Amino acid sequence: MTQARDHGGGLDAAIARYGGARADWIDLSTGINPVPYPVGGIGAQAWTALPDTEAMHRLLDAARSFWNVPRGADIIAAHGASALIARLPSVFAGDTATIPAPTYNEHAAAFRAQGWSVQEHGAAAVTTVVHPNNPDGRMWRAADIDGPTVIDESFCDVAPDQSLVTETTGGGVVVLKSFGKFWGLAGLRLGFAIGQPDTLAPLRDLMGPWSVSGPALDIGARALADQAWAEETRGRLAADADRLDALLTGAGAQVVGGTTLFRLYEVDDAVRWQDHLARHHVWSRIFPYSKTWVRLGLPHPDRWTQVADAVAGV
Length: 314
Prior knowledge:
By secondary structure, the protein is α/β, with parallel strands linked by helices. The protein has 10 helices and 13 strands. It folds into 2 domains: 11-36 and 228-311, Aspartate Aminotransferase, domain 1 (Alpha-Beta Complex), CATH 3.90.1150; 44-225, Type I PLP-dependent aspartate aminotransferase-like (Major domain) (Aspartate Aminotransferase, domain 2), CATH 3.40.640.10.
């Protein structure tokens, strides 16, 4: 059996160890917006009919406008960015990929699963970067992009001015977008790939028909057209990230990176911090490659007191 890779989440296991009901817990181990886009009503046809081309066109038109996709670049939608990540190695020719670490581990896993060799530095057939990077928030530049490259912008919607989507005018560059993080709708399973038509054509074939559900087509199109909600959300996330930094640095942690959806802290003992927070039913993210990094997402506006109480005395 394949061993599960390290991710955020895992709240059920935390509850089993530390007790309490799920409603008692705050899961800050992910970088998901705690105030999701209001999905509103969904028509019955979205549930009962096979997703049709008109609904897909509405979604892709909204996505193209929201992300300022360059003329000539193609865009496809799928059931989550992770589904695209798993199939992307098939788009490229070669057998060696460069993926600077530490970063989101599904990219290396996808290439290795298809027989590629993965390295952290050096020339390769394809390079993958996460922009901004998870977990440290590192931003890449257009000057860093040279040759076939996957640019994972799952967290970039908090900083749209930093997007590298303009680089998709070059052959072999694919930008990934995730709907679950900024919009807080991870359960909707919606992701996008942007790139040149000839680059994306085999990926579209691999995804097959009806890769996006009817409800996801409907909700995604509405959300991507709502610029006012996006602007208001960016402001709230920035203010809440500052608030979390003040709370954690007051307890002795040091900010070492992150985005306005998640913050990365240096502490004396990451395992001890996670254990202490968990005893107050706040779940955090630590990493197998660091003894001192703790990553926290943002709490819902109604749960700040619980986080403050958990941090106290750590």
